[in-house]
Amino acid sequence: QVQLQESGPGLVKPSQTLSLTCTVSGGSISSGGYYWSWIRQHPGKGLEWIGYIYYSGSTYYNPSLKSRVTISVDTSKNQFSLKLSSVTAADTAVYYCARREDGELHFDYWGQGTLVTVSS
Amino acid sequence: QSALTQPASVSGSPGQSITISCTGTSSDVGGYNYVSWYQQHPGKAPKLMIYDVSKRPSGVSNRFSGSKSGNTASLTISGLQAEDEADYYCSSYTSSSTVVFGGGTKLTVL
């Protein structure tokens, strides 16, 4: 059973870079076959797709966030990461990592989510 | 990319059926059979309920069904149960090789 777990600071100052890591257990990222994703949810609001990465390093980003987002993968640690630069209060959200199978266009496994607050 | 359009709320009594709509464009919902639906209870992560418009993952009740007509997809829940009360989100692949979600619909079981 695949499990995903987000980790990272719960508080980030405005203008700084938000950094989160998702640790995958129960399966190996380097085996391929999946896209590893980040999705966020503003408080009381809907879901927003941020982007995803294939184990090879290919990335796809939400055009509205593309200039500030970097998603990377560390196969040696079975982790993938999100960096979001120049954050503002509008980036306060619960951030989820999720898995998408190659050839499929849905997210079948999700992490529990982690709240990141942007505040000075 | 603009979010898909869902009604803010729907309600129904136990045993009844409800339908939640999800409207997009020919560049997303209408252009691909890659619509999925997620259920989210308060404080929990979303759970996949329907994918590829009408397919159910293993373990999801057959009371949940999906369909699509043109640029609008729909999720129908039959035989409403108290445990179905949650937020529901649709999602679609887009012509830009991205993913877009709907704004979410709050289902209240009366």
Keywords:
heterodimer; A: 120 residues; mainly beta; seven-stranded mixed beta sheet; four-stranded antiparallel beta sheet; 0% helix; B: 110 residues; Immunoglobulin-like; six-stranded mixed beta sheet; globular; membrane (chain B); adaptive immunity (chain B)
CATH architectural type of chain B: Sandwich
Q: Please estimate the helix content of chain B.
A: under 10%
What's the Cα radius of gyration of chain A? 13 Å
Instruction: Give the largest interface pair and sizes.
Output: A-B, 21 and 26 residues
Mean pLDDT of chain B: 96
Task: Profile the largest sheet of chain A.
Answer: 7 strands, mixed
Stretches of chain B where pLDDT is under 50 for at least 5 consecutive residues are none
Q: What proportion strand of chain B?
A: 35-45%
The secondary-structure element order of chain A is EEEEEEEEEEE
Shape of chain B: globular
**How would you spell out the order of helices and strands of chain B?**
EEEEEEEEE
Q: Could you give the count of β-strands of chain A?
A: 11
Number of extended strands of chain B: 9
Shape of chain A: globular
Main location (chain B): membrane
Organism (chain B): Homo sapiens
InterPro entries (chain B): Ig-like_dom (IPR007110), Ig-like_dom_sf (IPR036179), Ig-like_fold (IPR013783), Ig_sub (IPR003599), Ig_V-set (IPR013106), IgV_Light_Chain (IPR050150)
Subcellular location (chain B): Cell membrane; Secreted
